[in-house]
Amino acid sequence: MEKDTGYSTGYKIAFPILFIIIGIWIGGWFFSMTPMFGALTNQPVNDIFNSLNALFAGLAFGGVILTVYLQIEELKQTREALITTAEANHDMSVDSNEKAILDLYQTYCSEYFQEIKTSSMTTLIGCVKSKEYCDFVVSRFFVVEQLPLKECHYKSLEDLITAEDFSSFKSEEQKHRFKVDELINFFSILTGKTNSKKIIKNCDFFYQWWRPLFWLIAIQQKKRYFGSLIISEYSGDLLFPDVVVKLDEIYGFTPFKTDELAWQYILSHPKIISYGIDSAYLD
To answer: Which of 47, 229, 255, 256 is the least crowded, having the fewest Cβ atoms under 10 Å away?
Structure first.
């Protein structure tokens, strides 16, 4: 069944109004021809034109009523159309956002990203094993006050990065470390999909594995960032600690309110202990 429009309803109202007005006018015309009406006036022609004026005035008044009604109906239909369009746009936005997350998940599971995860894990485990190396890695996230890679780092990470000498170690270490940037950017993009937390949580991005390592880097980043006026001036806002907090919230963890609580978690985490954490973190 076709939906009744405002215009068809308007026609249904217009015709009865038209017939009523014409009927009244015709009835008045015949009444003016009766002897009773003739006894009341001696200007039948003038009265005829007056009746015509009354007819057109009545029609005009009926037209005003009809116009107002049609405008109200049109506004109602416009509002309904806008609501329908808004709902459709919202559904499209949700679908698009969900598709973006699924695309990210496919990227995360791709062969190329396996290399990123492996290299990032190598670098982050190195940060656990050597606080001095961690300070070097963290310094490289900022544009100023970057620390140099030292030969002692080569000795600390020789079981993680195979190299014949310090020169080749520098090249290999850089390849692994640059992958950490890609991993962090990936999770930063992921946390931007805040209206699809349920899908993110149900897609296994293995955040549980990354969580203690991410918190370690985030704490060391904050320590270096707020400990230097030059770094905060030239490096912009510090974003990664906020990303880690958002990831905790998405995956149902309670973000740590203080760095001390975060350190308790990191130092007691079985995976961190298995990597052999540097005793310098305990000072």
So the answer is: 229
The residue to which tokens 């990354």 are assigned: 210
Q: Is residue 172 part of a domain?
A: yes
pLDDT at 245 > cutoff 60: yes
* Domain-located, residue 166: yes
Domain boundary pick from 49, 64, 97: 97
Claim to verify: residue 52 and residue 129 sit in the same structural domain: no
The residues, ordered by sequence, that sit 6+ positions from 169 with a Cβ below 8 Å of its Cβ are 153, 154, 157, 161, 163
What are the pLDDT digits (tens) for 255-271?
999 999 999 999 999 99
CB 126 within 8 A of CB 114: no
Give the long-range contacts of residues 229-233, CB within 8 A, separation 24 or more.
Answer: 230/144, 230/145, 231/142, 231/144, 231/145
Residue 104 resides in a domain: no
Q: What is the pTM of this model?
A: 0.64
Other residues' Cβ atoms within 10 Å of the Cβ of residue 58? 17
Residue 120 and residue 248 in one domain: yes
89 lies in a domain? yes
Backbone angles phi, psi at 143, to 5 degrees: -80, -20
